[in-house]
Amino acid sequence: MRPRHRAATALLALALVGGVAGAAAGAASGRSAPAAATPVSAAAAAPSPTAAQEPLEPAGDREGFAPSVALDADPAAVQPPAQDSAAPVPVEVAVPRIGVDTPLVQLGIAPDGSLEVPGRGEFDRAGWLTTSAVPGEPGASVIAGHVDSTSGPAVFYRLHELVPGDEVRVQRADGRTEVFTVDEVRRVSKDAFPTAEVYGPQPGPVLRLVTCGGEFDRATGHYTDNVIAFASAA
Amino acid sequence: MSPYSPSARRHSARRRSTVVLLAAAALLLPAATATAAGAPAQPAAGEAQPAWVRATHLVPDLPQMDISLVSLTGGGTTTVEGAGYGDVSTYVRVPAGGFTVEVRGEDADPASAPVLSTTLQADPGQAYTVAALGTAQDARLAPLQDDLTPPAQGQARVRVLSAASSAPSVDVSAVDGPVVARAAAFGGSTTYADVPAGRWTLQAAPASGSGSSAAAATTAVDLAAGSTYTLAVTDGRNGQLQVTPVADAAGAAALPVGGAATGGGGTAAGSGGGGALVGGSLGAAAAVALGALVLVRRSSSRPAAAAVAPTALDR
């Protein structure tokens, strides 16, 4: 077979395979049932029942009760971590089911107000938004990574494959590993980005993994959508 | 190389073939969009963020109580044990859905009739404080939604739960700062008020004209920007009010605007229309097939090109 014919035949074969594979790729990903809430009991307070109108001792150190955030409260009471500026930063994120295991770079907010993203040479790294919560502390922690570079897949290429129940592990500089469980994976138009839901205040530790998705507009050089995995700490 | 030499003519022939190929490919490519893998646009049923629920006992004269959150969808029961007047529990993470909230005396039989009960529809990603409010003779259990709207930049948000039997209504303000609540009636909650982030002395006093002789009380706080808080105003010692601040939701001082530019397009399919990965792959496959066909034609036409007789232009 002449070289050109061989090349042409190979291209035809590739086309057929690509077409079939593409058709099969549309299968919906599976999902697991949400975990049932397990009963949790707060430790009972030690003091005997008090007279009706007498105030109780501050609940700061009683398990299951919210501590007062008053500055003059019992110093032994746990201060809400939102005010704990000494909380260590996250340094690594792993998402075992999609093969992600990467050191974290730090991201801020760009001068135009948008989310900074990992730079050239950092396509294999995800980044933690330093103005968001430290993973494991109350609030929304945001980690963003590229879905692809201009030439191939990047760190969060498979983020869209996550399903509820999948695990995300974030290691902090203090050696602690925070484990989150995916609750929801959603693709949103960048024109209707759910800012409050992703970045807004939260009562407990939650995590958002963000990357791009949808159509790539070659005219602008940007994807039209973001894919967001919403997760919460167990 | 002269533009009219035989090799130039073969180059021209190749360029014409190349132009044909590109033109054909362009016909196959609609407006220059391509597709990367993407999650479904909307979450499937069963995929939802959890809700956050806590309870607070704000009924003067009721002793310590057990407060149970019972899932109506088979998710089990969570109980706050031994909540006394003025206590606010920590939040628990629960699957979104319907719940019954039941209040019983501490250590009462969980199968016994509750003293107070209510239902709660906990929506995905939302937060709730189920508050026992009012007097012992006239208590109610109110599921309050905790507003997770981000405060304006540099602000925190604070609401008041008015629960001091000695004050039919209370005023709460930051000393040398904004008013947090005005005439907040006993047994209820206010909406959230914006307070600039930072250190404040918050003061609760009976509202003027309320006829209360309770003494005002203060508490010092450091409000974090982007975060939300609840102040519980209760009966303190010696005829004083007591004001206790607790954190609701932790937020950020500044929020990014818009979406995230986290893609370079290197894996987007080369052709095909908008829509799923499937369409992109088929479009790319078609483009590749066209390229293969053109290559075959070029190879078979090459001998013919070479047989073109040189003309005067070839010199």
Brief write-up:
The complex is a heterodimer of chains A (234) and B (315). Helices cover 12% and strands 29% of the residues of chain A.
Please, could you describe this protein's structure?
The complex is a heterodimer of chains A (234) and B (315). Chain A is mainly beta and 234 residues long. Chain A has a domain at 79-233: Sortase, Chain: A (Beta Barrel), CATH 2.40.260. Helix content of chain A is 12%, strand content 29%. Chain A contains two helices and eight strands; from the N terminus they run H-E-E-E-E-E-E-H-E-E. The longest helix of chain A has 22 residues, at 3-24. The N and C termini of chain A lie far apart (62 Å). Mean pLDDT of chain A is 79; it is low at 7-56. Chain B has 315 residues and is an alpha+beta fold. Chain B has a domain at 150-251: Immunoglobulin-like (Sandwich). Chain B is 17% helix and 39% strand. Chain B contains two helices and 18 strands. Chain B has helices at 6-28, 277-306, and strands spanning 33-35, 51-57, 65-71, 77-83, 92-94, 97-105, 116-122, 127-135, 138-146, 155-163, 169-174, 179-185, 188-189, 193-196, 198-206, 217-223, 228-235, 241-249. In chain B, the strands form four sheets. In chain B, strands 10, 13, 14, 17 and 18 form a five-stranded mixed sheet that branches. In chain B, a hairpin with a 4-residue loop joins strand 11 (169-174) and strand 12. Chain B starts with 5 loop residues before the first helix and ends in a 9-residue tail after the last helix. At the A-B interface, helix 1, strand 4, strand 6, helix 2 and strand 7 of A face strand 1, strand 4, strand 5, strand 16 and strand 17 of B. Strand 7 (205-217) of chain A pairs antiparallel with strand 1 (33-35) of chain B.
